[in-house]
Amino acid sequence: MPDGSVHASLMTLGFDPSRGRVVGNWVGSMMSHLWVYEGGIDAAGTTLTLSTSGPAMDGSGASANYQDVITFEGEDTRILTSRQRQPDGAWRDLF
Question: What's the whole-model pTM score?
Answer without folding.
Answer: 0.87
